[in-house]
Amino acid sequence: MIDALAPLFLLLMVVCAVAALSVKDLLSAVTVFGAFSFFSAAFFVVQDALDVAFTEAAVGAVITTVFFVCAINRTVGRPE
Amino acid sequence: MTQHLPILIVLCPLAAALVVPLVARVSARAARALTMLATLSSLVCAVAALRVALREGDWHYHLGGWAPPWGIEYVVDPLGGGMAVIVALLATLVSLYAGPHVRGLSSLRGAAFDSLFLLLTTGLLGIALTGDLFNLYVFLEVSSLAAYALLASGGERAVVATFRYALIGTIAASFYLLGLGYLYALTGTLNMADLAIQLEAVPPGSAMTVGIVLLVVGLAIKMAVFPLHGWMPDAYTYAPPPVTMFIAAVMSKVSAYALIRVLFFVLPAGDAVETARAVLSWVAVGGVLAGSILALAQTDVRRMLVYSSVGQMGYIVLGLSIGNAAALTGALLHVVGHAAAKGCLFGAIGSLPRQTVQAEIGGLAGAARRAPLAMAAFTIAALSLVGLPPTAGFFSKWYLLRGALDADAWLFAVVLLVSSLLGAVYFFRVLEQVYFVPDPSAPDTDVPSPASPPSWRMVVPVLTLGAAVLLIGLFNGVLVSSVIQHALPEL
Amino acid sequence: MSQLGLGQLQYALAAVLLLIGLYGMLVKTNLARKLMAMNVMQVAVIVFFISLAVRSGGTPPIEIAHGAADAAYANPLPHALMLTAIVVSVSTTGVALALLIRIHRRFRTLDEPELLDRLRE
Amino acid sequence: MRSTFGSPVLDAATRLLVPFMWLFAAYVLIHGHDSPGGGFQAGVILAASLILLRLVRGQGSRPNLSSRDAVTCACAGPLLYGGIGVASLLSGGNFLDYGVLPLPMDPVQVRVIGTLGIEAGVMVGVTGVLVLIFDVLAPWDDGTV
Amino acid sequence: MINRLIVLLFVPALAVLLQAAGDLPAVGDGTSPAFTHVSPYYLERAHDETGAPNFVTAVLADYRGYDTFGELTVILTAGLACLLILGTRDDPPAPQNRDRS
Amino acid sequence: MLALLGADRPLAAVLVSLAAAALIRLVGRWPTVREACTFGAGIVKLGLVLSMLPTVLDGGVVESARLTLIPGVTLHLRADPLGMLFALVASTLWLVTSVYSVGYMRAGRYPNQTGYFASFALCVSATIGLAFAANLLTFFLFYELLTLATYPLVAHNRTPEARAGSRKYLVYTLTAGQALLLAIVWAHSLVPGGEFRPGGMLPAGVPSGTVWGLFGLFVLGLGVKAAIMPLHGWLPAAMVAPTPVSALLHAVAVVKAGAFGILRVVGYVFGVDVLRDVGADTLLAGLATTTIIFASLRAFRETHLKRRMAYSTIAQLSYIVLGAAVGSVAALAGAMFHIAAHGFIKITLFMCAGAIYTESHRDDIRQLAGIGRQMPITMGAFALASAGLAGMPLLPGFISKWNIGLGAMSTGSWVFVVVLVGSGLLNVSYLFPIVYDAFFRAPHGTVSPERPSLTVPLAATALVALLLGIAPNIGVGFYRLAWSAATSVVGGADAGGLP
Fold first, then answer.
1. What does the mean pLDDT of chain D come to?
2. Alpha-carbon torsion B425, B429, B434, B436, what sign?
């Protein structure tokens, strides 16, 4: 399925990746990173990779994000 | 069961790794015993499988009963089987050596330590035996993750170094995976043997070159070759002694093995591989010289040993970048010899009681009196790294020199000799302290004072490795003609 | 680059993602940020593999009807591989985060230059 | 956690949500062989539900999985997987060749059962590990960071 | 400073990667080796041999089941690694390694 | 065990002292047992070497079994005339030095004697292995073992100076070892197996550039131990060691190993003709003559007795190198015989120095006035040995010099004859003043009486030296061995020499 959707999602991923690396606040960065994972899952759906998309959505968007939030909570913490 | 030996080599430590955390709740002693038993039985299986492979040719084992390239296969050939034997042997010795360390941990962490040690062994064995490039990636990750945890268990400085290692290691793994993706796109297969056949038919192009370069670079980074060794000194210095002993001895060797496997058994001979080897040769020269010179600058013995490892890995890379029969023989012999010697050196240093002996070179004054056996083994291993006969290191240097001269690579020959001279300087600096500088705390007598001798659990593995270094040297002819020669690729 | 047409656009974007990840890992000084960059890099590799598997006008690799092997299924092999790769990436992230917490507990910082300063003390 | 979110609404929502997540996990596991999903995804969902419980209702909430039990699960999953592999090895096939398991069915059916078995192993293992990692990473009750 | 140099290296790296991408079969090209060499076997035989209509599951759990076993080992390793590095509530790391705030 | 000893005598001769080294370590607690081990091993070794002598004198060789070290290259020992000569010198002198060492070490109350005797045995083992080595790799193996075994001996006193000296020794010898290793590996790529062959092992048609390079590396590798200038720096520095060690370094093992190696390389690797064809013999001869003259001159400046003798050793060793460079039968025979001649003379001198130091704690030449009257046996032996070193007729030094000179004349190189005579004169002028002062000046200070454990060995070696000078073939037939080795190397006998 080569239509405009795949490059679009990829571009969104690039944008999210850049944003995740440049947003000042770490927790916001994690949120943006979650969006990045979500878009990548969407990309995988467009690419007919349903299993991968499912896993990426569950792992990238949920588990990894939770782990990051835990770790950041425990280190630099939420900005007051 | 004998027809399942190839998988049993890996399954023994893996099964034990799964059971150890459960057993440890009931009895820590039983968990320890299980760890040792598992590594030992893995060693037995590996030796048996290697013997079969040498007698009857390469042994292909189809996992799940699916024939390659559709399924995954294990291949026991002289190269992979030999590597498995080395890993299993070191694992067996280290599992004994780790006893005193594990006993100092809480039960859950002790179990985690043992279990991770077994998983590390599993990963390394899996890399050695697999015939599938993606499966290699999976086991590479198993071993890496276990190594991160084990190295980091040595305290905070080790943690920082390990974090860097984890980043670099992930970059390496990603490169490897990406390179694998390029090759998969060009051939549609992941099986090593099949890939070698398919790649012959692929016209060379930039995709193939990039794939090969990524694959080779990824493995080279895992090997901690010269400019990418930055994480090693801190990690190895502060990690617990058994961890350093095992990882320093075998981990980079297994990556070197994977590099040899990929360069000589999978990738087609051609410009891309030639280029990769040319680059590797300069990396190696840099590593050999920089490693030796930096080792000279160290005052902590373990750090010195780390830098010497950087140099010694350069020897191996040099051997495979020269790439003729003699040089490859030298590289493989050096893989064996250096694994034994480095394990012995780190083991010996780690066996000295920390409160009495600092790892600073000056702190080793008179160590020969306090730990005569461990220091004797240390001496033999040190001589091997310097490359003095009749130890293993001399003979691998011999083959490497021979290979360099056969290839008219005089510069490499000179580099090898210069680096072993530098090695002599930094090792004899230590040996002088050990033997000729009197222990400031002990009266000067001819009779050794057994003040606090290292535990026998630590001394026995160290001595075994020291003896192995000597025996590998003396009987390298047997080793080369019965195993290593068959492990060489067809050139 | 003459051959680089629209057909290879996805590969190119995957390469861009990879380099963004690498850039973040090498240049960003905050350790947590490095880890995010590491994840980006790993996703880039996954994107690359998945792009290998897609087929024009194809369907997901789940059998529509028994025996319809000639339908334009996507290649299931890279999908299976990438499931494993995702697991590897989450495992690595978990371990790296544990290391990160340990570092912060001792050195009270996640900033690399500061960390190096404190190491030297 | 330092504190639970403690809100009654959240608490009720969780009570409602968790059983559905479990049901979904079971569905994903069982239908893994004919639709997207499988043991890993099921394990992730299960783990997510347990983590949710932890987040909302605190460490000691029931039903839940203690860290020690998580370790047990983490080991039991691969043990189940490997056990099926070894069982097929003992039944005369190669490792993980579950078609040869001595079950009174035709080989393809046996394979389906075997696949289900290992997927269950994956689920148990993944659940255990993810909960374990969460426990390790999450801030501790006593306020230590 | 060194970082700037690294970034400079990225330009040629990107060029090389793009060049290589141009050399690859186009995305979606069903005649490339990836579609003709190994995977057709799965598409033709998976359902009959493994009983799984989901080819991915067939590959994951059966043909390459050992990879999945490895994957499970990876994640177990990660769990134990976290445990050893940080300890849990019931089992904190040894006191000398842990300085409380 | 005995059957093994009988069956494989060259190997057994090496192993005896190796086993002794291990045994000495084990029984180090009981000095008497320890020293009994040394003597026992020394006697057995000498017996083994002697038992091979008849075969070798009859023109045969005794070979050991081959042990494959590297596919195609074996650990191979062979007793041929040249090796036999060196092995005889080493095993005889080991026995003598052992007796002397026991006296010396006990009298001086030196610490760590167990390590001393063990290393000593190891050293001798390496020397015998070196002597009997039948190929380049075997030679190298024992060459490096010798380096390692002497290192703790040099550092024996454990003082900072001793450690510095040993460090210097190690740096010099190991560097040389690397050059030698490169040479040997290179030679192996030209000649698989690298077996020594009288007259040269290199195949015909090796380009002259290769010969030059290879020979240069060999000279560099062996020249350090042979103390060819400017590679001699370690030797005076190593004088910090106890006197028996110096004796070992100078007379028996280390420097002789270098000189012996040069003879082996010239005669059995290249062949004199090959070297002459490319002109490499001139290089060697040039180095040797320079060393002879400069070392003799340098000896004058030293007032420390042992250091003066160190420079004398440097000069004397180059006689051997010069003989090898000249390359005629007589010259080679002279050079080979000089191994024995210088061995007995120099060990006498060092044992005298050691005896003087033990009894009087003097080691400066200027303090030795009149000591001849207090220590007549010691200084008598010293005088005799000095004369021998200077090349006086009826002493062994004369025979070697005469032959080298004859050889030089036969090749028309008069300049070497001049050098030989001149250096003899220099020898006289730096050694005889010591003897003169010792006997003809008034003594000052007291000296303890000479102990038999020191005087008996040195008198014995002096006597042997005297006998060798009068009848060079007496006993074991050193002279005959040298001639038969030289003839085998050069092929057709040309010039005469002493009967």
1. 83
2. positive
Chain B segment 140-169 residues within 8 A of E by beta carbon are 141-142, 145-146, 148-150, 152-153, 155-156, 159
Length of chain A: 80
Is residue D122 predicted with pLDDT exceeding 90? yes
Contacts of A53 (CB under 8 A, 6+ apart): A41, A42, A43, A44, A45, D36
Domain-embedded: residue C111: yes
Supply the pLDDT for residue F308: 85
Mean pLDDT on B436-460: 66
Q: How many of the other CB atoms lie within 10 Å of CB of F494?
A: 13
Categorize the per-residue pLDDT at E99 as very low, low, confident or very high, splitting at 50, 70 and 90: very low
pLDDT at position E101 over 60: no
Q: Per the omega criterion (within 30 degrees of 0), is the bond before D63 cis? A: yes
Q: Do A76 and C47 touch (CB under 8 A)?
A: no
**In this structure, is residue A12 part of a structural domain?**
yes
Together in a domain, B266 and B160: yes
Cβ of E66 within 8 Å of Cβ of B211? The answer is no
Within a domain: residue A65?
Answer: yes
How confident is the model at residue F274, as a pLDDT? Answer: 84
| A touches C, CB cut-off 8 Å, minimum 3 pairs | yes
- D3 and A CB contact within 8 Å: no
Beta bridge partners of F67: F75
Look at residue B357 in the predicted model and tell me its pLDDT: 47
Q: Round to whole Å and give the CA distance between F217 and F208.
A: 14
Asked if residue D36 lies in contact with residue C62, where contact means CB atoms within 8 angstroms, the answer is yes
List the single residue in C10, C30, C53 with the smallest CB-CB distance to A49: C53
Query: Residue F160, exposed/middle/buried by CB under 10 A (0-12, 13-18, 19+)?
Result: exposed
Taking alpha carbons only, the member of F156, F147, F155, F153 closest to residue F126 is F147
Cβ atoms of C47 and A10 closer than 8 Å? yes
- Dist. CA A60–CA D129, nearest whole Å: 16
Band (C85; pLDDT cuts 50, 70, 90):
very high
What ipTM goes with this model? 0.89
Q: How many CA atoms lie within 13 Å of F419's alpha carbon, on the beta-carbon side?
A: 26
Which range, C16-20, D53-57, F25-29, has the best average confidence (pLDDT)?
C16-20
Encode F244-258 in three state secondary structure: HHHHHHHHHCHHHHH
**Alpha carbons F210 and F215: distance in angstroms, whole number:** 8
How many domains would you assign to chain B?
Answer: 2
Task: Give the chain C residue whose CA is nearest to the CA of D39.
Answer: C83
Task: With beta carbons less than 8 A apart as the criterion, state whether F488 and F81 touch.
Answer: yes
CATH number at C22 reads 1.10.287.3510
Q: What is the pLDDT of residues B213-256, one digit of tens each?
A: 899 989 988 888 888 888 888 888 888 899 999 999 999 899 99
By CB neighbour count within 10 A (0-12 exposed, 13-18 middle, 19+ buried), where does F111 fall?
A: middle
Q: Which chains pack against A, by 3+ Cβ pairs within 8 A?
A: C, D, E
Q: What are the tokens at C49?
A: 């593999």
Interatomic CA distance for residues B83 and B240, integer angstroms: 24
pLDDT bucket at F36, cuts 50 / 70 / 90: confident
In a domain, C44, yes or no: yes
- Shared-domain flag, residues B101 and B140: no
Q: Is residue A80 part of a domain?
A: no
Q: Are F365 and F292 in contact (CB under 8 A)?
A: no
Average pLDDT, chain B: 89
List Cα–Cα distances, A1 to A4, A36, E27, F266, in angstroms. 9, 21, 10, 80
Mean pLDDT across the stretch C53-74?
78
Specify whether the CB–CB gap between F228 and F321 falls below 8 A: yes
pLDDT at position F455, please?
Answer: 82
Residue B256 amino acid letter: A
pLDDT over threshold 70, residue F39:
yes
Q: Which two tokens stand for residue B320?
A: 């495979």
